[in-house]
Amino acid sequence: MQWETVIGLEVHIQLLTQSKIFSSAPTRYGAEPNTQANLIDLGMPGVLPVLNAEAVNMAIKFGLAVDANIAPRSVFERKNYFYPDLPKGYQISQYQIPVVGNGHIDIQLEDGEVKRIGITRAHLEEDAGKSLHEDIADKSGIDLNRAGTPLLEIVSEPDLRSAKEAIAYLKVLHALVRYLDICDGNMQEGSFRCDANISVRPQGQTELGTRTEIKNMNSFRYIERAINYEADRQIALIESGKQVQQQTRLYDPSNNETRPMRTKEEANDYRYFPDPDLLPLTVTQDQIDTIRAVLPELPKQKRQRFQEQYQLPEYDARVLTATRELAEYFETAVKHTQGTPKLVANWVMGDLASALNKAALDITQSPVSAEQLASLITRISDNTISGKIAKTVFEAMWAGEDNADPDAIIANRGLQQVTDSSTIEAIVDEVIANNPTQLEQYRSGKDKLFGYFVGQVMKASQGKANPQQVNELLQAKLKA
Amino acid sequence: MHNKTLTELTQCLANKDCSSEELTQVFIDRIKLLDPSLNSFITINEEQALLAAREADQLRAAGKAKPLTGVPLAHKDIFCTKGIKTSCGSKMLDNFIAPYNATVVNKCNAAGMILLGKTNMDEFAMGSSNETSYYGYVRNPWDQACVPGGSSGGSAAAVAAGMTPAATGTDTGGSIRQPAAFCGITGLKPTYGRVSRYGMVAFASSLDQGGPMARTAEDVALLLNVMAGFDEQDSTSLDAPVPDHTATLNDSIAGLRIGIPQEYFREGLNPEVEAAIIKASQALEKLGAEIHEVSLPHTHLSAPTYYIIAPAECSSNLARFDGVRYGYRCDAPKDLDDLYMRSRDEGFGDEVKRRILIGTYALSAGYYDAYYLKAQKIRRLINDDFQQAFTKVDVLLSPTTPEPAFKIGEKVNDPIKMYLNDIYTIAVNLAGLPAISVPAGFVNDLPIGMQLIGNHLQEAKLLNIAHQYQQVTDWHQRQPEEV
User: Fold this and answer.
1) Which CATH number does the domain housing residue B133 bear?
2) Which chain A residues are within 8 Å of B336, Cβ to Cβ?
C-alpha cells in the first residue's frame, strides 16, 4: 500500500524583547542561574503580571508578514499544572482566542512547485524555567532565568506531506522571523524549537490517521530524521495489524528513534481559564497600520527586487535572500564594486560560500568583508587580475594575508595581470619558437592544439598574461 | 487617646498635643494589654514602629509633615511588608518574610503612617469568622465568646478595641464589610480596581479588593485617599483620577434616591436586624433622602455563582504554594510528588483545601462549561441587575449581614451556614461595585451594620451618606465595655 504522511508543526520562537513578557527582568541568554528572575518571575505571593507591549508588537509583525488576521481582542489564559520550574503553578498563554489567526506561508518544493502552507494561529505565552539535574549531587536545581521569556507559538495546518516539506517550511519560517527581527533564530539556545504532529494514512484517504506528537526539537537535521522515523514506525505498526496510539513522544538523536513520553490518558487536565490578572488584549487598527508601515522588506519581496534590480536569475535571488545577513552582504558588495551584480553573486554563492561552509562559519563571521570582496571583484573587472588569479588572491584574503586587502596581496605577490602587448607578444613568440612540431600539426588542421598554446603562454607568464590578449595574439601568429 | 478617631489624631499631632512616638506607644501598650485575649495581631511591629514614629516626629519638627505623618495603623497580614512576616493567616507562609512592599503598604508609608503590626485573618482570606486562621481565632471585643467576622476580623477587632485607629482589610465576598458590621466599625470595599492589588496575596483575583477600616466614615475617607489610585503594576487597576473623598462628606443628601432591594429582606434575615435597618433608612429619609423599593432578581444565584468563581480562581492562585521556593516544605520528601502533596496537605488548613478542591473540580475538563462558564454568565446577569437598579436610584441600602456576630465554633462545621453569612455582600464583589458597612444599631448587645452600595467609583457618594448618617446617630461612637 502507498502511504501518505501528514504533518503539522508547532514552532515556538523566543521573541527578541529586552525584558520578559510579564516582568521587567532582562531576557539575556547564558547568565548565572536565577540572576535574571525578579519577584514576578519567582511567582512571589501577591505579584501581578503586566504585559510587555513590545512582545505584542512582534506578534502583530509576524501576523502581518504571513497575511494573517490580527485579533482586535485576544485573551490570556492560565494553563494549570505543577512543575518545579513553573513558579506560579500555571503558565500564562493564549488558548481560545489567540492574537494571530489564519495566515499562510509559501514554500518551494524540490521540483520547483510552490506550495501554500496554512498557519492556523500564533499566540503569545511565557516560557517556563529550567530544571538542572546534572550539577548538584542527589538534588535537582531550578534556574528561573528563562521563566517568563516571551514566546510566540506558531501552529501550522496539517498541510505538510513529508519531512522534506516540513524542513522547507521551517526554513522559510526561520528566515522570516529573522527578517522581521523578532527572533534571533538560534536553535541551539532554544530560540526556535519545534513540536511535530505526525500521522499516516493510505494514499487517497481524506480522513486523518491517529497522530503522535514529537516534542521539543531544535535542529533541522533531527526534525527531518525524527519525522521520517516516526512515519516509518507508524506505517510498520499499521501494516503489522496494530494501531497507532495517540501519544506524546520524544526524539532521541543518539539512537535515531522516538520514544513515548505520555499517552492521551496520562495527559494533564490543564484547567484553562481566562487569567483574571490580565485584561483582554486589545489591538487597534491604528496600531496595526503603524506596525505595517515599518515592516521590513520580506524574503519574497527581496527576491523579486533582486531579480529586477540586479538582473539575477531566480535561483541566485533565492539563494542570496535566504537570510537577511546574506542579502545584506551581497548588496554591500555590489555597492562597493565596479563588477557586475552577477559576478558578485557568483563569488558570494561560489568561492565565499564554499569557504564559509568548509570552515563552518555563517556569513556574519566571514573573515572577508563585503567591502573587501567588492575590491577583489573590481580588480577582476578592471583587468588587474584574471578570474583565476582572483581565486589565489581570495585564498590569501581568507587566510588574513595583508589584512585581507586584495590590492596589497596583488602588489606584494606580483600578481598583477600583464596587459602590455609587447611583453605578451614576446612570450607568444618564444612559445611558438619552442614548439615547432605542434605548430606544424596545428597549421595542418589540428585546431585543438590552440588550447595547448594558450596553456603554454599562461604557464610561461605565471598565469598573469591577459587571457584575451593572449588569445588574440596567438590567433594572429599561428595563422601566419 | 486610643479612643480618638484618625481625624482627631491628625489634629493632635498637628497641634503638637502629642508626639507620634507617644501615640505609637499608647497603641503598642494597648495591643500588649488586650491582644493576649483578643488575638487580633499576628505580628506586632513594636521596634520599627517606634523608630518610624521618632522619624515622623523629626519630620514634623522640620515642618515636613504630611497630614497623616506619624499616625499609626495596622495592615491585614495579606499585604506584603518588606522584611516583616506576611503569613496570610496560614501555616504555609508562617516562615515567609516578604521581600517587597505591597503598593498599598508603600502608599501608607509614603503618607508617613506608622505600621503597628499585621492583623489576624482567616487563612488566605477564606472564611467569615476568623476561625480558619492558623494563628487561632480572634475574639469579638463586644463579646469575647463571639467571632469578629472575617476574613479581616483581626483588623476589625483591633479598630473596635482601640488597638489601632485604622486598619487595612481586603474584601472578596464581604471580608471588610461583614467584620466591620460585627465589630461596630465602618469599612469600605472600594470599586474593583480602585485600590491596587499588587502585593496583596491573591485569593480570587477578579473579586479581591483592598479597602480601609476605621471608626468613622470620615476616617475611612482619609485612609481611602491614601490607598486609592492607578498602579501600573496592577493591570486591573483603574486609571481614573482619585477625588478627595473628604471634600464631599458634608454635602447634603436631600433628594438622594435610596433603593431597598426587596430580595435582601426575605427569610433568613433576623427580624431585629431588619427593624434596625428600617430605622436607619428612616434616619436617612429625615435627612431628605427618598426611599424606593427595587428588585435584584438574580440575588438567589449570587452565592452559588460566587462559590464557583472564587474557588476556581483560588485553586489556581494557590498553586504557587508548592514548597519549592518559599513557604512551608514538608520534612524529608521522598520525591517530587511527595514534596507537593505533603507540603500542601500539611501547610493548608481545611477550608483552604475545601475551596481548592471545589475550584479544581469546577475548572476540570468536562465541567468547565457547566460550572465556571455558567457562573460567569450569571455574574453578568447579577451585574445587569445592579445597573438596572441604578437607573432608578443612586445607591442601595441593605443589612450588611443577616444577623449579628455568632458564637465561636457555632458554624465552623457547617460551611453552607457559614457561607450564607455573606449573602448580602457577595453580589457586590461579583459586580465590582463599591459598598460600605456603617454601624447601625445593636441586636443582643452586639453591633450590626447597614450596607450602602453605590455604582462604580461612587465611593465619595457612599462616604458622604455614611458621614451624614453618623452626624445624626452615635452607633459608631460606642465602645465595647469589656475592653
Assistant:
1) 3.90.1300.10
2) 84
pLDDT digit string, tens, across residues B243-265: 999 999 999 999 999 999 999 99
DSSP B51-74: HHHHHHHHHHHTT---TTTT-EEE
Can you spell out the DSSP letters for B252-313? --TT-EEEEEGGGGSTTS-HHHHHHHHHHHHHHHHTT-EEEEE--TTGGGHHHHHHHHHHHH
Inform me whether the C-beta atom of residue A132 falls under 8 Å from chain B C-beta atoms: no
* Domain residue extents for chain A: 3-290, 297-413, 421-479
- Walking along chain A (480 residues) 10 residues at a time, the average pLDDT comes out as 95 97 92 94 98 98 97 98 96 97 93 94 97 80 95 98 96 94 94 97 94 94 96 96 94 91 79 97 97 94 95 94 92 96 96 95 94 95 88 94 92 85 88 89 87 89 85 84
Give ∠ CA A167-A171-A172 in degrees, rounded to 5.
120
Q: Do β-strands B290-294 and B257-261 pair in parallel, antiparallel, or remain unpaired? A: parallel
- Is B374 among the catalytic positions? no
Contact A89 B206 (CB under 8 A): no
Query: Does the beta-carbon distance from B235 to A49 stay under 8 Å?
Result: yes
B383 and A CB contact within 8 Å? no
B167, part of any domain: yes
**What ipTM was reported for this prediction?**
0.96
B360 at the A interface (CB within 8 A)?
A: yes
The answer to whether B370 faces chain A, any CB pair under 8 Å, is: no
Rounded-to-integer distance, Cα A3 and Cα A202, Å? 5
Could you tell me how many CB contacts below 8 A there are between chain A and chain B? 97
CA angle B67, B68, B71 (to 5 degrees): 140
Q: Do A46 and B372 touch (CB under 8 A)?
A: no
B64 is a catalytic site residue = no
Beta carbons of A88 and B319 less than 8 Å apart? yes
The DSSP call for residue A71 is P
Rounded distance, CA A207 to CA A218, Å? 30
Q: What is the pLDDT of residue A274?
A: 97
In this structure, CATH architecture of domain A421-479: Orthogonal Bundle (1.10)
Partner B contacted by A266 (CB < 8 A)? no
Angle CA A419–A424–A430, to nearest 5: 170
In the chain, the amino acid numbered B193 is G
Q: Is residue B185 part of a domain?
A: yes
Q: How many domains does chain B have?
A: 1
Instruction: Annotate B389-423 with b (16+ C-beta within 10 A) or e (fewer).
Output: bbeebbbbbbbbbbbbbbebebbbeebeebbbbbb
B151 is catalytic: yes
CB atoms under 10 Å from CB of B3, counted, come to 10
Taking the CA atoms of B162, B165, B169 and B171 in sequence, report the sign of the dihedral they define: positive
Range of the domain at B178: 6-253
Q: Using the beta-carbon criterion (under 8 Å), do B320 and A45 form an inter-chain contact?
A: yes
DSSP string covering B112-130, please? T-EEEEEE--SGGG--SSS
B321 chain-A contacts, CB cut-off 8 A: 45
C-alpha distance from residue B243 to each of A200, B103, B226, B247 (Å): 66, 19, 11, 8
A348-392 pLDDT, tens digit each = 999 999 999 999 999 999 999 999 999 999 999 988 888 888 999
Question: pLDDT band for position B419 (50/70/90)?
Answer: confident
